[in-house]
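Progress report, Aim 2. The chain analyzed during this reporting quarter is listed below.
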Amino acid sequence: MIKENFIKLYESSFRENWDLPCYTDYGEKESYTYGQVAEEIARLHLLFKHCSLRRGDKISIIGKNNARWCIVYMATITYGAVVVPILHDFNPSDVHHIISHSDSAFLFTSDTIWDTLEEEKLLGARGVFSLTDFRCLYQRDGETIQKFLKHLDQEMHAAYPNGFSKENIEYTTLSNDKVMLLNYTSGTTGFSKGVMLTGNNLAGNVTFGIRTELLKRGDKILSFLPLAHAYGCAFDFLTATAVGTHVTLLGKAPSPKILMKAFEEVKPSLIITVPLVIEKIYKNIIQPLISKKGMKWALSIPLLDSQIYGQIRKRLVDALGGRFKEVIIGGAAIDPEVEAFFHKIKFPFTIGYGMTECAPLISYAPWNEFILGSSGKILDTMEARVYKKDPEAEIGEIQVRGENVMAGYYKNQEATKEAFSEDAWLRTGDLGTIDEEGNIFIRGRLKTMILSSSGQNIFPEVIETKLNNLPFILESLIIERNKKLVALVYADYETLDALGLNREENLKTIMDENLKSLNSMVASYEKVSQIQLYPTEFEKTPKRSIKRYLYNSIAEV
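Predicted C-alpha cells for the chain:
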C-alpha cells in the first residue's frame, strides 16, 4: 500500500502553495491561485453538505479541459465522493448511460453539451451544474439547490467569519483502499466499462511523478490531452496539483498550429502527449525540411549530418517552448519511422506504457535511459510477466499486478473476472516481450491479431504503419476477408486535388504502386491482396484509435 494518503496530498499542497498560480484557462482571463482553488472547493463542499451528499456518492463531469473542471474534480475527491469524468466527445446516449449506470447524483457539464442532453434520461441525477459559472441548470423536484446557491456568499461568511484562509483547509480522512474514481473507457471493441480506481491506484501514479521529479513546485505545464482520460489526468493535472505546478488548460482541439502558439507562450517544463500529436508535428515541420534535395545530399555526408540533425533538434525544441526536460509519449503505438528519427537527432523523448485499468502507468524510463523500440521499464511498484499458451512462442500476453491495478469494473463482475487470470494478474490484452532489464516491448493487440493460414501471427497495426507512410494515404485499416488480407484506405484527396490529379484515373495507379511497395516491405504471410478505397475518415474513439469492430466484417464499398 502506498504510504501517502491520496487526499491529504492535496490538503498539504493547497496550504503550501497558497499564493502560487494553479489553473489558467488558455486565452481566457480565468486564472486561479492555489488559495483561490481551495476557496472554490470550500464553496462546493458547502453545497454538497447542504444537499446531504454522502461519502461514496458519485459526481459526473463532462466538458473540455478548463479550470472549473479541475476544481470540481478536486472538490469531489476531497469531500469523499467518487468522481466520474466523462470524455467530452462521447455521444449523448453514452453520456446518459454513464450517468445512469454510475448512479451519479450530480452532473457538472459545459453549456454546449448540456444542450444535447435530455433531462428525463438523467436517471437518478439530483442536480446539473454549468462548468462556465457553477450555476444550477437543473434540479430534481423537491431539491433546493438553486435557492441555496443564491445565498452561497452568506453561507461562506457564516462558515468562515474571518475569511477563508489556508488554516481552514481540512479534507475528509479516507483511506487509500476506497474507490475514488470511476473511469469509463472507450475501447476499440465498442463496450464502455466503468473502471474502479482507488486512492491507492491514483496515489501510485502521483507519487511516482513526485519521486522521479517529473514535475516540481513552480513548474509550468500545458494540459491539452482530455483530462477525462487517465493519462492526461494523472500527470498534467493530479501530479501537477500535488506539487505546486502551474497548469494551463488548452480547452480546444490541439491542432499543430494552435499547439505551437501555446507552447511558445506557456513554455512548459514537461510535455505529456499522444503519438498522433507528435506525428503531425513531424509531418508538418520536419518532413518538408529533410525531403528537400539539397538537405538529402547534405545528410548523406558524415559529420555534416550530425550538425544538421543538431540544428533540426534545436528548431524542434524551440518550437515546443524550449524549456521542457522531456516529451513523454503514450496512449498508443508511435510510428517507428518517427521514433527512429527522433532517436537519431537525440531529441529528449520517451515512450511510456499503461492502461486506464492501471490509472494508467505500467512502465516508463527517462529519455536518457529509454531503449529504442521499447515502452519503458516496469515501475518499481508494479510486476509484469509474459504469459504464453505455447511455451515455444516468441511472444505472449503482457500481464501485470501491483499498486496501480484497478479494483475491478463497476457493477460488472463478469467483465472483472475476465480481466484477471486465475492467479490474479491483470490481462492487458497486449502482446509482447520483456527483456532482462525489465523493458517492455509491445508487438500488437491480442484482440486484433490475425492468425494466417500457415499459423503465423499477423499484427495489423504493423502493416498499417508502413502503409500510412506511402503517398496519398491518410489512414488505413487491415482486415481479413476470405482468408486474405485487404487494406481499407482513406486517401489524401486534398493533396490529390491540390496537385491537379484526377481522382478516378490517377488514384488507382497510385494505389497499385503503393500495394507493390507495401508487399515488398512485409513478410510473405503479411502480403495484402488488394487496397480498397474507403470514402470517409474511419470512426475513432476519443483517444483517436480506430473503432476496428465497426469494419471487421465490412462488405465491398
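The two ends are 54 Å apart (CA to CA). The chain has a mean pLDDT of 91. These observations will guide the mutagenesis work planned for the next reporting period.
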